[in-house]
Amino acid sequence: MGQQSLRLPWARAPLALLALLVLRGAASTAPNFVLVLADDLGFGDLGSYGHPSSATPHLDRMASRGLRFTDFYSSSSVCSPSRAALLTGRFQMRSGVYPGVFSPGSRGGLPLSEVTIAEVLKAVGYATAMVGKWHLGLGMNGSFLPVHQGFDHFLGVPYSHDQHTHYPQFASQEYTGQSRRGPFGDALAEFDGSVGQLLQALQENGLTNTTLVFFTSDNGPSTLRMARGGSSGLLKCGKGTTYEGGMREPAVAYWPGRITPGVTHDLASTLDILPTLTALAGAALPKVALDGYDLSPVLFGSGKSPRQTMFFYPPSADPLHGPFAVRFGKYKAHYFTQGSLHSDTTPDEACHGLTPLTPHLPPLLFDLESDPAENYDLLQSGAGPELLQVLKEIQLHKVLFEQRMEFGESQIRKGRDPALQPCCVPNCTPKPSCCHCS
Question: Distances in Å between the alpha carbon of 422 and those of 134, 164, 179, 350?
């Protein structure tokens, strides 16, 4: 679309869109891409996904006029790893973004050797920008920030800013007290309002029919915060766990004139975003091991999703335990389960932080089509021939995948340096004690 000015609502609410990737084609035939990533938003938080009191008219309109996914997964149940996988199309272990997340003083970050969506598209002439929460490292002199990972522009914060739908929520005066859901609902309503401004900007610039807008969330809700932590709906547990509530997310693909409105139950993941955008842009895939697939057949109704499996790694992933769970078709097998502090306070003790790592042999097995809440282990009453065959197939997929999985050097374990923390007082010492903002 050339390099003409595109006026977007960044100045008014730059952080309400917690991660906004704008990727603009350089030729008139190249589509534009906008990726909107919410923070700690659960599967049950939007009106279009069943919440009775959420005020999300713009996202719901996108869902009704676009393609709404029911079985869409993040690669992780916490922030940094899930964002690394979205940007690279690779499980976070390959790039070393494990265990856990980056802190403000982390020495590590997403390795600059990793190829991001932005870098793939820049190679074919795209202009790129990232707005909002990064959470993939800061580094000395900002060496890990988006401008060093293929983005032309960056407006945002390097770590969790603990506002909007991430606890503790914040909403501007215009939205405070306007939702029936309290502070979480107010923040969500402002998020939705920012999406509305974005869609309006695309329309005013004549870009609606040439732009794919894709919306999803980085991981499930922090139920530790109770009503201020979001909702996973009918799914089990939330953030920090490998149950469905931790990693199954709302997702909508919106492209008027190109994507037929509807609902898909096909399996898909944030890992698939890079291969999909690469194919739509006519770009070349990175020459590295990828874990994603091109979802074009699903988006345009020409076929089924090429993804048949999903592997669920905990935040503290390691090669010894491998994936805690595997989904194959409609079945999901749990080889290990563990609670998380992020999923405390729910009535289900399986979610809680004090619930220890528990191996399962044979694994717990659930039919997610009839039991998405993972309540009824199919093997409790014994396994017939059909289920035994399912278990064999899942185990085969698991073994083959683990043979291909290579864990990169952990960037999280590189430790912390207080001097690396972002500071609102330029050139002060000693950090971080001198970084008191007025």
Answer: 13, 20, 33, 37
